[in-house]
Amino acid sequence: MSNLPNPADMSLDECGQIFLSGDAFTDEHFFHTVSARLRKEAPVKWVEHELFNPFYMLTKHADVLEVELHPTEFLNAPRAILGDKTADSMREMQGHLVKSLVQMDDPEHRDHRNLTSDWFLPKNLATLQGRLDELAERSLQQMADAGGEIDFASEIAMQYPLYVILAILGLPESDYPRMLRLTQELFGPADPDFQRNPDALQGILETVADFVAYFDGITADRQANPTDDLSSVIANGIINGSPIGHKEQLGYYIIAATAGHDTTSNAMGGGMKALLEHPDQLARLQADPSLMATAVDEMIRWTSPVKHFMRTATRDYELRGTTIKEGQDVLLSYWSANRDEDVFENPYTFDVGRSPNKHLAFGFGVHYCLGAMLARMEMKTLFGAILPRLKKVELAGEPALSWSNFVSGVKTLPIRYELA
Ligand code: HEM
Q1: Cys bridge to 251: 92, 99, 351, 397, which one at CB 3.0-4.6 A?
Q2: Protein residues whose CB sits closer than 6 Å to any atom of ligand 1
Q3: Percent residues over pLDDT 70 in the chain
Q4: What's the rounded Cα separation, in Å, for the pair 253 and 98?
Q5: What ligand 1 atom has the least distance to the C-alpha of 300?
Q6: How far are the Cα atoms of 176, 194, 214, 236, 242 from residue 221, in angstroms, in the given order?
């Protein structure tokens, strides 16, 4: 389908470079073939390229976990996400335009995380169930109205989690198109379908400026008229006795709006794609809805929508026989870790009953995804509403995956179906 090389012709150094662009993420088979080889032959792979500052790529589950479990030895700052040298030096010059939890380390991280962590506890999330049910019903109605053919990725999976985020932040539904565009631009700045500016970096700056203007308005409103939404917690946040900083406040809005959107969309779209590609598993889940919880986690393992985060070593650290030197960076490849033969029985089998399922798609340790419970609830609710009504379903065209090495997954999934 693509201009990707044949993995059999690639050197190990070329294999190590698959994170340097979004290409590898548009082709699951390619990514998994190359990462399986890295797990076997070079699990702690030093990656060098003239346009990028070097780093180690970690592809084994145990190594990703070990780094996540050592937040003092491996910091999120300064390089939480892979960018090229230009992006790295821009960040050094300007600092982060906004600062969110994923760019912070303890104790700053812990203080800021504590501000909203109660929001994401089951007790508060339970109050959202009614809204989730309504939104799932709406998605089902959309499928009924579409008359038997729909792009499940863009029409259902992309929209439902965004409505949930709007509800959590207390934003009006009329802001939906704007938020959709901004999050897609932020996470897929180089994908031609989502591109705002041919210069990807410039595009991100413009998108961030739009976010800032929008959320400054929300802050002013919630400071004057606080409600019980998440925006009010962020707008009126007190950290160690002082009001939360502007950069940190914006970082919070942005992470709440974005981290919970494209990620969950990709897990849902990719989950549906996996069910279509494994009709026996679809039938099994339809026959036994009590498998929904394990099915949802398997969809999340299978798609691993967040493809990487990075850490920087604070001291020399021995990992699988390699010394990571103080100041060197490591990239955590979640998708690869989640296919690790040493941890998962038949890792390439999509099994809706998989248990245990110790996937790392939500990360681990102090930065463990704050929205993991919410994401699972959303997915259970959507598939719980759709699957009992889905009499027949098949692919109606070629699926396409988005071009991004950060948050990526299926962006087009045409399906043909009959509803009961
Ligand atoms: C299937 C959907 C999702 C996936 C795969 C996912 C994945 C991740 C990953 C890998 C991390 C970094 C963890 C680490 O460094 O150890 C993370 C962090 C985070 N996620 Fe999610 N996420 C999802 C949904 C959500 C949702 C729905 C929300 C909230 C609305 C959310 C909010 C956050 C926040 C705030 C963080 C930062 C936590 C911290 O640094 O302390 N995520 N997520």
Answers
A1: 99
A2: 68, 101-102, 113, 255-256, 259-260, 263-264, 267, 300, 305-306, 309, 334, 361-365, 367-371, 374-375
A3: 95
A4: 10
A5: 1
A6: 19, 30, 11, 11, 20
How large is the average pLDDT for residues 154-177?
91
Nearest to 311 by CA among 109, 157, 127, 167: 109
Instruction: State residue 60 phi and psi, 5-degree precision.
Output: -90, 140
Q: Please count the other Cβ atoms lying within 10 Å of the Cβ belonging to residue 412.
A: 16
If we measure between CA atoms, which residue out of 296, 258, 256, 302 comes closest to residue 401? 302
- The residue whose C-alpha atom lies closest to atom 21 belonging to ligand 1 is 369
Residue 101 Cα to ligand 1 midpoint, Å, equals: 10
**5-55 per-position pLDDT tens digit:** 999 999 999 999 999 999 999 999 999 999 999 999 999 999 999 999 999
Residue 2 domain-assigned? no
pLDDT over 60 at 1, yes or no: no
* Domain-located, residue 1: no
Given a cut of 90, whether residue 211 has pLDDT beyond it is no
Q: Ligand 1 mean position to 13 CA, how many Å? A: 30
CA angle, residues 60, 329, 82, in degrees to nearest 5: 85
Decide if 39 is inside a domain.
yes
Residue with CA at minimum distance from ligand 1 atom 6 = 362
What are 374's two structure tokens? 């919410």
Determine the structural domain holding residue 200 and report its residue range: 7-419
Name the strand (E) or helix (H) holding 60: none
Q: What is the domain count for the chain? A: 1
In the reported structure, the alpha carbon of residue 363 is separated from the centroid of ligand 1 by a whole-number distance in angstroms of 8
For residue range 103-156, what is the model confidence (pLDDT) as tens digits?
999 999 999 999 999 999 999 999 999 999 999 999 999 999 999 999 999 999
The protein residue with its alpha carbon nearest to ligand 1, atom 41, reads 367
DSSP of 350-368: --TT--S----TT--GGG-
Identify whether 239 is part of a domain: yes
The ligand 1 atom at the shortest distance from the C-alpha of residue 267 is 1
Q: Ligand 1 center to residue 160 CA distance, Å?
A: 17
DSSP labels for 300-342?
HHHH-SB-EEEEEESS-EEETTEEEPTT-EEEEEHHHHTT-TT
